């Protein structure tokens, strides 16, 4: 909720947080809290004493209460030898503790001036720091007496199946271990997000906090960093008289690792406002980052022994590991759910991934908790669920950044990107975007504005004990700020949401690659089959032509050599010759059709009018025989095509116009182009609707062989094949007794 560079002194609230504070009706200056150096407040809680030892082995800093706790005046302690104060063996034990590979802090027992203390040791600002607390009654500490209760509590954690279940067990066990009146578990939304109370254990009469939300600014950035550094923080009495560190020269000692560190006045006021006298916080970390907190509240001052604090710290470490394991399990389950949904998406009746996505967009909404899902592919958008207004969707595309294939982008507040989205926040506040191809093909999950209304347990009419900063530092003030902060924002996208989307993208790419490989294999197989078919066609045709010529020649010789044949035999020999000739023509047509699929095309710019005139040199005789009037294309129409193949198209279509011309004049045929699509239109006998697909099949005639000028039924099949070779499209418009128009393109249609 703030911006900064990692320096505690430069954090400032962002515009949203500032506006929220104003809207909550308070005059609290949040920047004061955010800028407070809480690790250098220059004091400790008074139930312990602090000694900081310089590199020369002498005490350089002491707490002002050392006389009451140690029985030695601060003047006597300052400048004294640490070895003389603790003894050589004890000082050596301190160094061994700090040198052990167990962390930056250690706990051991020390005797000072005849008094026994629990000592916490660490290093700060180049000094060795020793914090001393009067020893507990039970000495020495026997771990075997204490461990069974901790072990029993940890064992109960193992039975929790969800994060909430485990936290519910944890707060109950920590409350039993420490005796606090209320123990709650917070879970934060993201690294710097607000917190929700997800589990609670409380004494009778203590107001419930379960389900409460608090704005992120209730725990400012520098406090979160300290929680990540220290597993535990204890306040034994909010009204404690702070023991100051002396001498106060220069910057106060860095107490980031301190167990006794005094607390910010803002936080103490917060606790007083809600009736809390003592507290303890246990950090819950995931991957070294703050995930949540166990917060303990006492209605009276409460001092915990060092052993109990160590047990709570151990409990926090174990709980963090358990929560991390549960989240990993939940993420694994989410991925398995994604794979199940993917299985239905990618094994359906569709042969291509985009087709499956567009047809099964309803399945996508089950992958990620969202209000709607949008699939954008090849410029087409399909929406499922409760999609935003189409105009809002169009505006969204301009704000999606460039993404590599399979990459994910999330946004929780589009209104912060562009104020134009403010009016549509209820239906579209945030998006999770998955890029399919690294360009414009996307899957987008959308969420509307989150429902920020909460039921707060505190009675608004109940008097509140106010401090100098007013009601802001209470749950009621936090509620107002929280609801103002989340306005115009969606429920945050979790790491699990992103993981599922990435898993989905990975599966899509894998499926696409697999299908591309399958298609490549099929293409190779088809290519081999075509090669084999071409080889067979040519070999069969050439092998067939030789015996056909022999049959025709033999029949002719018989006719010539036997002039006295009877009429029936002579007629049969003539039939043999005609059939052989027809077979030869069919084989030639078949060879020509096969050759159309071979060889490269050579597209050039061609004047359509000139090409038609050239085609009429071949088809003109047939057209003249039927008195068909030809209308040439308009001058200047240019097409890009293989010139030889275009001639074949025009000749075949013009000859067909002559063959199937109207029985009665006038008979016409026109060649032209409309918006890049060529046409040949006649007013002939037409083609019935039921047969309009059949006419493009090789050797398929709708009329007897010798009617309408004869032929083998190869002309339109050849036209279709040539158009296909040009990656064009061909279609018919025909009405019986009125005529036929053949439309075709010689390239992809625009």
TrEMBL record:
Reaction catalyzed: ATP + protein L-histidine = ADP + protein N-phospho-L-histidine
Coiled-coil stretches: none
Top EC class of this enzyme: transferase
Any single biological process term in GO: detection of visible light
Residue span, Histidine kinase domain: 539-750
Location within or outside the cell: Cell membrane
GO molecular function, one term: phosphorelay response regulator activity
Keyword set includes Ubl conjugation: no
E.C. designation(s): 2.7.13.3
Lineage: superkingdom: Bacteria
Location of the Phytochrome chromophore attachment site domain: 162-317
Major subcellular site: membrane
Matching SUPFAM superfamilies: ATPase domain of HSP90 chaperone/DNA topoisomerase II/histidine kinase, GAF domain-like, Homodimeric domain of signal transducing histidine kinase, PYP-like sensor domain (PAS domain)
The entry's keywords: Chromophore, Kinase, Photoreceptor protein, Receptor, Sensory transduction, Transferase
Any matching Pfam family: HATPase_c
Entry's Gene Ontology cellular component terms: plasma membrane
Record InterPro entries: BphY/WalK/GraS-like, GAF, GAF-like_dom_sf, HATPase_C_sf, HATPase_dom, His_kinase_dom, HisK_dim/P_dom, HisK_dim/P_sf
Keyword Heme: no
Homology family: In the N-terminal section; belongs to the phytochrome family.
Protein name stated in the entry: Sensor-like histidine kinase SenX3
Originating organism: Actinokineospora cianjurensis
């Amino acid at each position: 909720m703030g911006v900064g560079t990692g320096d505690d002194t430069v954090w400032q609230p962002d515009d949203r947080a500032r506006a929220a504070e104003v809207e909550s009706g308070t005059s609290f200056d949040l920047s004061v809290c955010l800028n407070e150096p809480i690790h250098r407040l220059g004091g400790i809680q008074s139930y312990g004493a602090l000694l900081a030892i310089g590199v020369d082995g002498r005490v350089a800093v002491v707490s002002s209460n050392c006389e009451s706790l140690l029985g030695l005046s601060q003047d006597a302690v300052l400048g004294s030898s640490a070895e003389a104060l603790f003894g050589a063996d004890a000082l050596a034990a301190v160094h061994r503790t700090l040198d052990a590979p167990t962390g930056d802090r250690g706990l051991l027992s020390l005797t000072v001036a005849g008094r026994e203390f629990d000592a916490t040791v660490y290093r700060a600002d180049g000094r060795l720091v020793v914090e001393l607390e009067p020893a507990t009654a039970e000495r020495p500490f026997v771990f075997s007496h204490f461990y069974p209760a901790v072990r029993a509590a940890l064992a109960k954690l193992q039975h929790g199946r969800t994060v909430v279940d485990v936290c519910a067990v944890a707060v109950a066990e920590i409350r039993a271990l420490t005796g606090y009146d209320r123990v709650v578990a917070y879970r934060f939304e993201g690294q710097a997000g607000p917190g929700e109370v997800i589990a609670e254990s409380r004494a009778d009469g203590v107001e419930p906090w379960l389900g409460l939300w608090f704005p992120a600014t209730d725990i400012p950035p520098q406090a979160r960093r300290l929680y990540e550094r220290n597993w535990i923080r204890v306040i034994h009495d909010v009204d404690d008289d702070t023991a100051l560190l002396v001498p106060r020269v220069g910057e106060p000692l860095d107490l980031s690792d301190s167990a006794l560190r005094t607390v910010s006045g803002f936080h103490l006021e917060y606790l007083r406002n809600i009736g809390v006298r003592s507290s303890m916080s246990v950090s819950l970390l995931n991957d070294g980052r703050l995930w949540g907190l166990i917060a303990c509240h006492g209605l009276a001052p409460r001092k915990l022994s060092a052993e109990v604090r160590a047990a709570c710290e151990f409990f926090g470490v174990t709980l963090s590991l358990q929560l991390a394991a549960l989240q990993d399990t939940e993420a694994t389950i989410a991925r398995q759910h994604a794979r199940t949904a993917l299985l239905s998406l990618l094994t359906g009746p569709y042969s291509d991934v985009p087709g499956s996505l567009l047809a099964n967009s309803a399945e996508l909404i089950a992958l990620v908790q969202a209000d709607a899902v949008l699939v954008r592919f090849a410029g087409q958008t399909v929406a499922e669920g409760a999609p935003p207004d189409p105009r809002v969707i169009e505006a969204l595309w301009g704000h999606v950044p460039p993404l590599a294939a399979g990459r994910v982008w999330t946004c929780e507040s589009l209104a912060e990107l562009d104020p134009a989205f403010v009016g549509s926040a209820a239906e579209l506040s945030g998006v999770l975007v998955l890029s399919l191809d690294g360009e414009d093909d996307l899957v987008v999950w959308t969420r509307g504005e989150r429902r920020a209304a909460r039921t707060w347990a505190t009675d608004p009419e109940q008097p509140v004990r106010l401090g100098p900063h007013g009601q802001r530092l209470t749950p009621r003030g936090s509620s107002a700020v929280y609801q103002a902060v989340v306005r115009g924002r969606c429920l945050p996208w979790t790491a699990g949401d992103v993981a599922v989307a990435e898993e989905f993208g990975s599966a899509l790419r894998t499926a696409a690659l697999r299908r591309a490989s399958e298609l490549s294999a099929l293409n190779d197989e088809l290519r081999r089959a075509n090669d084999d078919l071409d080889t067979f066609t040519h070999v069969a045709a050439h092998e067939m032509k030789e015996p056909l010529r022999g049959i025709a020649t033999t029949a002719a010789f018989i006719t010539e050599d036997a002039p006295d044949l009877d009429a029936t035999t002579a007629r049969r020999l003539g039939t043999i010759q005609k059939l052989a000739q027809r077979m030869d023509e069919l084989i030639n047509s078949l060879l020509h059709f096969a050759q159309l699929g071979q060889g490269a095309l050579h597209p050039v710019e061609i004047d359509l009018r000139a090409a038609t005139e050239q085609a009429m040199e071949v088809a003109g005789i047939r057209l003249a025989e039927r008195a068909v009037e030809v209308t040439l294309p308009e001058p200047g129409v240019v097409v890009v095509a293989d010139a030889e193949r275009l001639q074949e198209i025009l000749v075949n279509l013009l000859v067909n116009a002559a063959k199937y011309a109207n029985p009665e004049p006038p008979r016409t045929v026109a060649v032209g182009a409309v918006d890049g699509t060529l046409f040949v239109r006649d007013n002939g006998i037409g083609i019935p609707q039921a047969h309009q697909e059949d006419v493009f099949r090789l050797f398929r005639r709708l009329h007897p062989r010798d009617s309408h000028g004869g032929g083998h039924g190869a002309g339109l099949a050849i036209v279709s094949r040539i158009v296909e070779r040009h990656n064009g499209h061909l279609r018919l418009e025909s009405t019986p007794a009125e005529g036929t128009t053949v439309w075709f393109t010689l390239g992809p249609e625009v």
